[in-house]
Amino acid sequence: RMEDVGGELNAFTSKEEIGLYSVFFEEYLERSIELIADMIFNSQFSEEQIEREREVILDEINSYLDIPSALIYDDFEQILFKNHELGNPILGTPESLRCITSEKIRKYVERQFKVEQMVFFSMGRTPFSKVMKKAEKYLSIYRSSSVEAKVRTTCPISSPKKTIAKKDTHQSHVLLGRTTFNMFDPERIALYLLNSILGGLGMNSRLNTSLREKNGLVYTVESTHALYTDSGVFTVYFGCDPENTTKCLNLIQREFHKLRHTLLTPHQLVKAKKQLRGELGIAGENKESLVLDMAKSFLHYNKYVNLTELSELIQTVTAEEIQKVANMLLLPDEFSLLHYSS
Length: 342
Prior knowledge:
With 342 residues, this protein is of the alpha+beta class. It contains 13 helices and seven strands. The strands form two sheets. It has a five-stranded mixed sheet, sandwiched between helices. Helix 1 runs parallel beside helix 6 and helix 7 crosses helix 10. The protein is globular.
């Protein structure tokens, strides 16, 4: 229905969010809202359709088995959040997929898709009053069911674990990480800077400079963070020849030690802030990503923090605050480790 007029329809699922969205010419706003509302609240989920989709997702799961650098993140979170919902892979498992029926999906929609817990978001030139009129026309007719939504249990604190898994790969793939702040913690801004300095997008990150540029041990090394409503994950990933694994781990610990014990100079701090602000600005040029980020921001914070406001927050972070976060997080004995060994 959207593609017939040159539009696009897409969806995403994360550990804590599900979204359905469309991109289209302005004159098809009503068509898009009507279709999205109908799909969310009136889908039938026939057994025949579910069986076809089940096979598609099984193929998607199997494709991840051929990408160890992606699979390792899912496997790691299953270890870090063992027996907790956050440890479940978003795609599910072959076993969990086989248990899904149309009745289970309909009950999930009834239980979880409550209008008061949703955000309807639109970005474009259409006047806000017109957007509201169309949204109310197609969405106000739906009322939340009396079935109580499931509330996730509190995330437990896990002890560090070291896991070695045999994989038929040419390289060793290693992921080390730990739990960190949630998405509401004020320390998260300092974490953004710390992550950028340590192993962020830039080729000038400390881990890339040490492991790749100076020592030629890896092609890829990176640090990442994923912040949830009640927890978070901070990780460092690298792939290397098996004989270089220990040397890479030692170099990573050396960079951890430097950030914990050596305060950033004023020049280093200014440079780090400029780089992070630039990366955020470039990312914001992707309109589809920008819309999704804005919608998620309203979902969790009930507001959107634009680039100017975020830049101001970044500017307030001190070298002492970054070092404080480093001393809270970069403790090697508190990291779990997953090693895909060939």
